[in-house]
Design goal:
The complex is a heterodimer. By secondary structure, chain A is mostly helical. Chain A has a domain at 16-209. Chain A has helices spanning 2-30, 37-54, 57-80, 88-110, 136-158, 160-170, 172-177, 182-204, 214-229, 234-254, 256-273; strands at residues 126-129, 132-135. The two termini of chain A are 36 Å apart. Chain B is mainly alpha-helical. Chain B contains 15 helices and 4 strands. Chain B has helices at residues 2-21, 25-51, 59-75, 80-102, 107-127, 129-132, 151-154, 157-179, 182-192, 194-199, 205-230, 240-253, 260-278, 282-296, 300-308, and strands at 138-139, 145-146, 149-150, 232-233. The longest helix of chain B has 27 residues, at 25-51. The chains are: A mainly alpha, B mainly alpha. Chain A binds chain B through residues 33, 82-83, 87-90, 92-94, 96-101, 103-105, 107-108, 216, 220, 223-224, 227, 256-257, 260-261, 264-265, 267-268, 271-272, 275, and chain B through 54, 101-102, 104-109, 111-113, 115-117, 119-120, 123-124, 127, 240-241, 244, 247-248, 251, 280-281, 283-284, 286-288, 290-291, 294-295, 298, 317-319, 321.
């Protein structure tokens, strides 16, 4: 019984890793707390649904994040870049308006009823994990989460573009003085962030059904993760995502009332005592 | 001040006229709802205007006031008039204590903090079936008479409208008076440059917590009106999306002018009812309007009005540094 709960916690944690790394990246580069991130996740899921209706799940897995990446680049170019000199709260309110527009547009286009995406046949079997059978698809979600975490960490640490991203997150002005095209870079990173949100949406669709409340369900948890991990810190977000996933999964069974409140208590405590979160501002 | 008093008297007369002339009960109920939201938005707007802080969790005080009234009335120990006073006092005190802790947190972190606190109470109310009726909500059992007026008389659309409208006007008048005192200038100084305010000897924590408590009180008043109007409260009244809607009204209406949030509430309801008749995606249009207002006219509808009609010069500051 414990195994399956821990497992589900890992699955949700992996999903949060994919989502929140996008959120953390966008914050790191543009200093924007993207309230619309949950709706981007939802958009990715619904677009993935439509694509998988036309072809199959695997195409959707690649195409939907690609579409979201384009959307993200446009969002940065015509949204965040033009507003970068304004007060941060202004941009946050704009993302809030964006959240409304996206949520409503998705509802208008795809309707308000719950939609389901079937698990792809290639992964529709059970794997034996420590004596408990678990769905292979969920196991692959964990694999995807781990791959994203590892991939992003390696990319940021060892590649030249990753170095530019880290530099621009720390000090955009000096970085651009050194000759890095920070606007281009920001557009790319925001595109990557939205693509990650979209990927999380496509991946989540088979085991969490598509509903208009998707974005609201997940945005609060994402904020909790990013705040606890430290706004802008990827490693912190990874750890916090896993911890949150576990706390929720285990708590839901053993201590339902306390478990839901615990993440918030933690988040409040951190915001009051150390607004920069656990990992601080180090990437 | 005299101008405000005159304006208030005019507004009250206008309200009286409307309540007599408008015979459509649906329209009156709709206007009443809009007014209640206007008071809610006013609370959020006060915080933004005087403190420069954005709260995503004010629904806590809105729903909280309604829930407090519901629970206290259920106990049937205290007369309803005192229940209202007690509920508002509790909300204000609680907000002051919360404010003492959280107003020190800067910028967006404050917003997220209010979000977290609000959601905590939402989740608690959704689960406490014994006390609050859980996710189903609870009925508010008003007695047959309130402040000497019979309930059935008070609940008539025209009188409900008049009660809410009068409350709105009185609250705005009181706020306008308060902001014209030294307290108002003091909090504005703290908002614009906290460090400098401290340098000239102002203790910044208490005024800011006081403004937070004040904004909670105004929002609580809206909660009381809502409890009267519908006789029911559910966890949705505590959800952050409701706070978000109020915030939107404040931004669209403009928070620099005191009447801005109320104007924003009117715009929101216009969109919802009139546009909503013809377009199911009115929220999209409202969202785009919100973005447009933020980008092009940060002082909102009220700011636009003041600039075009009254010819005032614009001066913008969200957050204030």
């Amino acid at each position: 019984m414990l195994t399956i709960n821990l497992f589900n916690g890992l699955v949700y944690g992996a999903l949060l890793i994919v989502m929140c790394s996008g959120l953390a990246l966008i914050y790191g580069l543009r200093r924007v707390v993207n309230f619309a991130h949950g709706s981007l996740y939802m958009m990715g899921a619904y677009i993935g649904y439509s694509i998988s209706l036309q072809s199959n799940f695997w195409v959707a897995l690649v195409a939907a994040p690609a579409v979201m990446a384009v959307f993200g680049v446009l969002l940065d170019r015509y949204g965040f870049r033009l507003l970068q000199d304004r007060d941060p709260l202004t941009v946050v309110l704009v993302t809030f308006g964006l959240l409304l527009v996206i949520e409503d547009s998705v509802q208008t286009y795809w309707g308000k009823s719950n939609l389901s995406v079937p698990v792809p046949e290639a992964l529709a079997f059970s794997v034996d994990l420590l004596g408990t059978p678990v769905p292979a698809y969920r196991l692959s979600v964990i694999v995807i989460g781990a791959a994203v975490a590892l991939g992003l960490s390696l990319w940021l640490r060892y590649s030249k573009v990753g170095l530019f991203v880290r530099a621009a997150s720390t000090d955009p002005v000096t970085t651009s003085m050194q000759g890095v095209n920070t606007d281009f870079l920001s557009a790319g990173v925001v595109g990557l962030g939205t693509a990650l949100a979209g990927l999380a949406g496509v991946v989540a669709a088979p085991f969490l059904s598509l509903s208009p409340s998707m974005s609201a369900d997940v945005i609060i948890d994402s904020f909790v993760v990013v705040v606890i991990g430290g706004l802008g810190s990827l490693a912190g977000a990874f750890i916090a995502a896993l911890v949150l996933g576990m706390v929720q999964a285990i708590g839901a069974v053993y201590l339902p009332d306390a478990a839901v409140l615990l993440p918030f208590v933690f988040m409040i405590a951190i915001l009051i005592w150390k607004p920069s979160g656990f990992a601080g501002s180090r990437t | 001040m005299k101008k405000s008093l005159l304006g208030a008297l005019l507004a009250l007369t206008l309200g009286g006229v409307v309540s007599v002339l408008v015979s459509s009960n649906t329209l009156l109920s709709l206007l009443t709802q809009a007014i209640i939201y206007a008071v809610f938005a006013l609370g959020v707007g006060v915080l933004l205007k005087q403190n420069g802080m954005v709260s995503f969790g004010h629904a806590l005080f809105f729903g909280g006031a309604s829930y407090l009234i519901g629970v206290l009335l259920q106990m049937q120990r205290i007369p309803a008039e005192w229940v209202i006073v007690l509920a508002l006092l509790t909300i204000t005190l609680a907000a002051f204590l919360i404010g003492l802790v959280i107003v020190r947190v800067p910028g967006v972190a404050f917003g997220m903090l209010t979000l977290a606190i609000g959601q905590m109470f939402f989740l608690t109310a959704s689960r406490a079936r014994g006390l609050t009726g859980g996710a189903d909500g609870m009925n508010i059992e008003w007695p047959s008479h309130l402040f000497g007026v019979s309930m059935s008389q008070m609940l008539k659309p025209a009188s409900m409208f008049l009660t809410c409208w009068t409350t709105l006007v009185v609250v705005m008048l009181l706020l306008a008076w308060l902001m014209s005192t030294r307290f108002g200038s003091l909090t504005e100084a703290v908002r614009d440059n906290e460090e400098r305010a401290r340098f000239i000897g102002i203790r910044t924590l208490l005024p800011r917590a006081a403004v937070y408590a004040l904004s909670a009180l105004v929002t609580g008043v809206a909660g009381v009106l809502s409890a009267l109007n519908t006789g029911f409260v559910s966890p949705e009244s505590l959800h952050w999306s409701l706070s978000g809607v109020a915030l939107m009204m404040v931004v669209v209406g403009g928070f620099k002018a005191l009447w801005g949030p109320a104007a924003g509430a009117v715009v929101y309801f216009l969109f919802k009812e009139i546009l909503g008749e013809h377009a199911t995606h009115w929220m999209t249009i409202f969202g785009i309007t919100l973005i447009a207002v933020i980008v092009f006219s940060p002082t909102g509808v009220a700011g636009l009005f003041e600039r075009w009609v009254l010819g005032k010069k614009p001066s913008v500051k969200v957050g204030g540094h």
